[in-house]
Amino acid sequence: MTTYWCEYAWLPDGLASGVRIEIERDEIRSVTPDSPRTENMLYGLVVPGFANAHSHAFHRALRGRTHHDRGTFWTWREKMYALAEKLDPDNYYSLARGVFAEMALAGYTCVGEFHYLHHPGGGKRHDPPHEMAHALVSAAEDAAIRLTLLDTCYLAGGFGRELDPVQERFSDGDVDAWAERVDSFEPETPQVVVGAAVHSVRAVPAEALGKVAEWAKGRPLHVHLSEQRAENEECLSHHGRTPTALLDEHGVLGEHTVAVHATHLTKDDIALLGRTGTGACFCPTTERDLGDGIGPARALADAGVRLSLGSDSHAIVDPWEEARALEMNERLGVERRGRFTVAELMGAANNYASIGWPQLGRLAPGAGADLVRVDLENINTAGIEPEAAVFAATAADVTDVMVAGRWSVRDGRHQNIRNPRAVLNREIGKLWQQS
Ligand SMILES: [Zn+2]
Fold first, then answer.
1. Who contacts 98 (Cβ-Cβ below 8 Å, separation ≥6)?
2. Given Cys at both, which of 95, 186, 199, 402 links 154, Cβ 3.0 to 4.6 Å?
3. How far is the CA of 260 from the centre of ligand 1 (A)?
4. Maximum distance among all alpha carbons in the chain?
5. Chain mean pLDDT for the chain
């Protein structure tokens, strides 16, 4: 048993001071506010680890290389495809290792990887067929971050459209082949959960949706939903209903399902997501980067939808920024402040249940021992009220991170990966040098 004393800690019922936390192996045993100091002192603010509920690790290589151009989500997507073509199990592992290390340094202790780079392309298969997934598992192990591998079904190039050649490597051919492949994937580590994803209603034909939902039963099931108005318009003209209604019709919605983005929804869509217990993952820094629009976060929360947050394209990797952006976007949209409480913002940032880890995300007895220490004496946090840290802190203020009872980051240094900056520089540089 190890005991820590936290100057401040974010507990399930809010901020507390002088908090003694007892940890045995990978679990929190007790949490006692207003305790006398002990030898292991954690100054500043200690919060539960952050859950990154939506990630495509390889998109990190697009940061600072697509952002100063004009264009739209769709022109950005072309560059993303060009990058995807260059990835194989070796360079994917090396890149993801740096990306996950950046997340670990920012305070994320688990990442939901929405994984669709399955095959080498041209109808070929890796041997074993899960080589790309194993690359992610190894990278996550190196970076000491828990992984939820959301194995993504991707079968079509649009409504009633064949795959583009560049999309072929995302596809197993049909939904049965997808299910068979996912069934045979068994990562041999307790730090990995396997779930499923429907890429979108654009990429999975309606007749295949039910099979994915059936396979996923009881596991996390994620789906990109209504990120772009064009998806809604095409879905309406092809199926006569919104993407949300289509997913519902085929049994995709439910309490283990998370709608990613959920940006352009009707009132009925919002009610339907609430009624079915579906969650919604917002990715505010990506959505603003791609010019997607502002999703109805408050309306969804009011309908009973549990919100989570993801860094998605990794234009920015900063859980604090994602959390406050939820509130800031609302302020811009409705011209009022205080749309979300701090507890709601922290709840979204700590929503591990959305990626299949319900035992994490809170500093409480019985919870997994994932925690993050934040410096309250940096230039940007000096003088703030600790309770309002979400409105001032950044990833750069995270000094220490514990995952499953072990420190993965100490004094701002990753414990396993000596120089994550060099890893990212090298791997991203190599990818863009290849023609
Ligand atoms: Zn995404």
1. 60, 417, 420, 423, 424, 427
2. 199
3. 7
4. 66
5. 95
Backbone angles phi, psi at 56, to 5 degrees: -120, 100
Confidence at 308, pLDDT banded by 50, 70, 90: very high
Beta carbons within 10 angstroms of residue 63's beta carbon: 17
Tell me the pTM. Answer: 0.97
Q: CA 301, CA 378: separation in Å to the nearest integer?
A: 33
- Distance from C-alpha of 16 to C-alpha of 34, rounded to nearest angstrom: 8
What is the C-alpha separation between 217 and 144, in angstroms, rounded? 28
| Distant-in-sequence, close-in-space partners of 259: CB < 8 Å, separation ≥ 6 | 222, 223, 225, 226, 244, 247, 253, 273, 278, 279, 280, 281
pLDDT over 90 (residue 80):
no
Nearest by Cα to 260 from 292, 302, 305, 308: 308
Residue ranges of alpha helices (H) inside 42-171 are 73-84, 89-106, 131-143
User: Is the backbone peptide bond immediately before 120 cis, with ω within 30 degrees of 0?
Assistant: no
Cα(142) to centroid(ligand 1), Å: 23
Ion ligand 1 residues within 5 Å by Cβ = 312
Structural domains in the chain, sorted by start: 2-48+371-404 (2.30.40.10), 50-354 (3.20.20.140)
Concatenated DSSP letters of 63-95: TTTSTTS---HHHHHHHHHHHHTT--HHHHHHH
CB 51 within 8 A of CB 355: yes
DSSP states along 407-435: EEEETTEESS-S-HHHHHHHHHHHHHH--
List the catalytic residue out of 292, 312, 318, 370.
312
**Å from CA of 56 to ligand 1 middle:** 6
Centre of ligand 1 to C-alpha 179, Å, is 21
Torsions phi, psi of 100, nearest 5?
Answer: -70, -30
Tell me how far apart the alpha carbons of residues 175 and 182 are, in angstroms, rounded to a whole number: 11
**What's the confidence (pLDDT) of residue 401?**
98
The answer to whether the CB of 51 falls within 8 A of the CB of 351 is yes
Distance CA 312, CA 225 (A): 14
Active site residue 261: yes
Closest CA to 77 of 244, 161, 202: 202
Instruction: Extract the tokens encoding 411.
Output: 């004094």
Radius of gyration of the chain (CA): 21
Segment 370-395 shows an average pLDDT of 97
CA dihedral 128, 134, 136, 142 (to 10 degrees): -140
